[in-house]
Amino acid sequence: MLRTLLCFTPFFVCLFWFITFITHYHKSDAAKRMLTWFLLTCVVLYLCHALFFTVGLPHPMECLWTLCSLSVYPLYYTYICRLVSPPASPHKLLLVMLPGTVVAAVKFFFPGEAIDDARKLLFTVQVITVVSLGWRKLRAFDNMIADVYADTE
């Protein structure tokens, strides 16, 4: 019982925030809309996590988990970009999501250990890339804000 509760807690937290953001989706700016998509991805990801640790996952759900786990960091980076710079074209979003989609599709049609190794490698590259590029973007934005709102004393 406690294990099930602990497994589903991240899912319910993300579901709550997704419902909160989706109710104001049409009135939101581009950054909040991207955050809504990020939260939807997290809802599906944590649902798959909870099901894996409680009852197990069939192969199609495991492929969905792969897609979501490889989409979280690119969506987070896109959210950072939408926060600190003018919105880029939606086609760039599709390019950011392409590697994860390809790995999930290959996993669906050709299950095996080699694709799991490729998923781990891609996930590692995504984390390092998002952390470094996101850090640079946020630092540049912070410097720009400091220049605009400098303390004159």
Q: What are the defining features of this structure?
A:
153 residues, mainly alpha, 82% helix
**Helix-strand makeup class:** mainly alpha
Residue share in β-strands: under 5%
What string, H for helix and E for strand, traces the elements in order? HHHHHH
The largest sheet is: none
For the termini, the CA-CA separation is 59 Å
Please report the total strand number as a whole number.
0
What would the average pLDDT be, to the nearest integer? Answer: 89
Describe the structure.
There is one protein chain. By secondary structure, the chain is an all-alpha fold. Helix content is about 80%, strand content about 0%. Helix 2 packs antiparallel against helix 4 and helix 4 runs parallel beside helix 6.
In short, what is this structure?
The protein has 153 residues and is mainly alpha-helical. It contains six helices and no strands. It is globular, with a radius of gyration of 18 Å.
